Amino acid sequence: MASFVVLGAQWGDEGKGKMTDYLAEKADVVVRFQGGNNAGHTVEVGEKQYKLHLIPSGILYSNKMNIIGNGVVLDPKALFEEMDYLKGLGVEITPDNLVISDRAQLIMPYHKVLDGIKEKVRGKKEIGTTGKGIGPCYTDKMERSGIRVCDLLHEEIFEDLLKENLEVKNDIITKVFHGEYLDFNEIYKEYIAYKERLKPFVKDTSVIVYDKIKSKKSVLFEGAQGTLLDIDYGTYPYVTSSSTIAGGVCTGAGIGPTMVNQVVGIAKAYTTRVGKGPFPTELNDSTGDWIREKGHEFGVTTGRARRCGWLDLVILKTSARVSGLTSFAMTKIDTLAGLDKIKVCVSYELDGKIIDYIPASLEDLARCKPIYEEFDGWDENIKYAKHYSDFPGNVMKYLNRIEEVTDTKVSIVSVGPKRDQTILLSEI
Ligand code: GDP
Ligand code: IMO
Ligand code: MG
Description:
- The structure is a single chain.
- This protein folds into three domains: 162 residues, 3-Layer(aba) Sandwich (Adenylosuccinate Synthetase, Chain A, domain 1), CATH 3.40.440.10; 94 residues, Adenylosuccinate Synthetase, subunit A, domain 2 (Orthogonal Bundle), CATH 1.10.300; 158 residues, Adenylosuccinate Synthetase, Chain A, domain 3, CATH 3.90.170.
- The protein has a ten-stranded mixed beta sheet, sandwiched between helices.
- A hairpin with a 7-residue loop joins β19 and β20.
- The protein contains 13 helices and 20 strands.
- The longest helix is centred in the middle third of the chain and has 22 residues.
- The protein is α/β, with parallel strands linked by helices and 428 residues long.
- The protein binds guanosine-5'-diphosphate, 6-O-phosphoryl inosine monophosphate and magnesium ion.
- The site of 6-O-phosphoryl inosine monophosphate (IMO) has 23 residues, from α4.
- GO terms for molecular function: adenylosuccinate synthase activity; GTP binding; magnesium ion binding.
- Its cofactor is Mg(2+).
């Protein structure tokens, strides 16, 4: 049995797409278990760059099964746009390489409208969501009024559910928020057309994942977002609406915790965040700007500039704890090349006390002062490294300190966006 999880250890955009693609070479199945098309995962192979949102990052191999699990919120419009985009890049999607859970929740047009309206109403307290309808869709799931993929496959059930939902949503949109009324027929027609295209891909994916693991196939679970965007352990309410930590794999793919062997936390050599919310090591200065430009830190899904700051080991420690990480994959070590000095936050000072966890209250977190250690930098040649022995001593020191403080080994180092710019330090 070999099953492993790749998840974001920070605020998303750590390089999960790249690492999933790299590790997928040895996998038979790649599974998305939460989130939706709020994710933007970049994979670079040769001269080509692929931007994936909903479709798992194993799709670039011709012989892998990719699964969109029940924990994902699925926007059929976005899915088909992504399929067409990939087809344009020479990647054919068929029921042989993509399977979609019959239990996945559907993102409906009113979810997207409500996402926008709610952000407006929050005013200065806006979360800075991706506007893809993620929060409102998960709200309906938990409130038990959501519409699942299996419901769409039964036209009469879908019709009833859409009518019930739309009546309530139209009241909220028009009467509470003075927005525009949504037409039933238009949505119904649009989704029934999706149904025909979706049908061949739909199966009970929990059964497939279980059987694959039992028959000794290798299964890779690809997380979206990151630990600090988790609905429970993130910087609430500035989070996404799903379980981005390892626990989310069980509920979002339909397997038990005893079936997961390894959990790899993907972490950038520095920290970024897109959207609002606290960020203790943020650099609102020329170094922050330098990292953003050098690392091309602009969102894949929304194009927004990402906020940049030093590596925060309190965050990595939190990720190691709440997801039981077996190792880290450190990415973008090459981006820091050229800096004379590099800082790393090893703990926080809160009201005179040293702490190594993230306080639940954002007011407390705002008072946390990062405690830094300073490291000497390294040069651009790092992007050509092929083995650990190619690393300059200063990179080794940096990696050693990360392992020491987080009590978690670094198993992979990424020194560039391409598949072959990856150095495996220990077998996964
Ligand atoms: P994800 O959401 O975690 O998959 O990450 P994104 O794709 O949103 O952002 C990561 C960005 O960094 C993408 O543009 C990747 O191509 C790029 N990337 C990944 N790993 C590395 C690396 O080691 N070095 C450099 N320079 N770029 C990387
Ligand atoms: P990947 O998988 C970075 C952020 C948004 C916002 C918050 C809530 O590429 O790492 P949502 O639309 O989910 O309700 O937005 O979460 N966010 C991400 N930030 N990477 C992502 O995905 C993100 N997905 C959502 O910016 O702050
Ligand atoms: Mg991303």
